[in-house]
Amino acid sequence: MLSTTRGTPVTTPAPGVIPDTTSGPVSQEPPAAVPNTARAREAAAAANRPETSAEHFRREALRGRLHGSRVSLVWLVLAAAILGWGLGLIASARFHWRTRAPRRQG
Known about the structure:
The protein has helices spanning about 40-45, 55-65, 75-100. By secondary structure, the chain is mainly alpha-helical. It has a domain at about 70-100.
């Protein structure tokens, strides 16, 4: 993708020296420090010692929850399609029943 934005040329005080360029507004404030979180401290401490069996189990369990199970994608999509179709039938029948015209008596 080509950009049509052009910057303004910067003249250098000395020939052959590339000037420092900035993009965006320039602020006099120092950059904000990133807070050191508990997980980062725990990860740094864990890097220096061997992993216990409980930590290994917890890490593997988290990985399993993040990456899903060993269900084939085809079966997962098929089950989702059948569930969606069934819920659509139920919703359609319910809306039809609730919005139908009243029956005539007599």
